[in-house]
Design goal:
alpha+beta; 8 strands
């Protein structure tokens, strides 16, 4: 199903399995997708299995909930099965942004990816989603009421014990003038204890 995101993010395609998302996107069934975590319970389970120190776990939560990035996080082999199913090479990709009206519906971890077919740009509104996805992919005909123009997918970062690294440009780094400026913003925010 294609679901909206808050401005300035594009829509996402979400399902209970990676295979369903990859079928909707027209790509190989085994391609990795992100976990969509918005509830405290699943986050606590994941946090307990991250190969990060306590301050880095708090930083990961802030990146997901406040910065609304997509984060590649290191996991231990003791992670719950629902996490390990999404892990590749000791890391799991996690998405934490959620349009507020959808939050009550997302009570368990879903799989998620940017709402686009392979080789197309992510969609920003229901009309664009209907034009790009096949009819069997449901599209929620609602949104945050903000314009579709200027929206982007999320910035993707990797957080490890060694620090934070920019992986893919998106809305967050665009708003700060690029990847280097965005990473500096995150470092300053962390140094300030935010």
């Amino acid at each position: 199903m294609v679901l909206p995101n808050p401005h300035p993010l594009t829509s996402v395609v979400a399902a209970t399995t990676a295979e369903a998302i990859n079928a909707a996107k027209g790509r190989p069934a085994g391609q990795a997708v992100a976990l969509w975590l918005v509830e405290d319970g699943p986050w606590a389970e994941l946090a307990a299995a991250l190969d990060l120190g306590p301050h880095q776990v708090a930083m990961a939560r802030a990146l997901l909930a406040e910065e609304r990035v997509t984060a590649l996080l290191p996991v231990t082999r003791t992670a719950p099965v629902w996490v390990l199913d999404a892990a590749r090479d000791g890391f799991v990709l996690v998405f934490g942004s959620c349009w507020a009206p959808l939050r009550p519906l997302l009570t368990h971890p879903l799989r998620v990816s940017s709402a686009n077919r392979t080789s197309h740009a992510p969609v920003a509104d229901p009309a664009a989603a209907r034009a790009q996805f096949p009819p069997e992919v449901h599209v929620l005909a609602a949104g945050d009421g903000r314009p579709a123009h200027g929206r982007r997918a999320t910035t993707t970062v990797r957080l490890t014990r060694a620090g934070i690294e920019h992986l893919r440009p998106g809305a967050q780094c665009h708003a700060h003038g690029g990847p280097a400026a965005y990473l500096e913003h995150l470092r300053e925010k962390r140094a300030a204890g935010c």
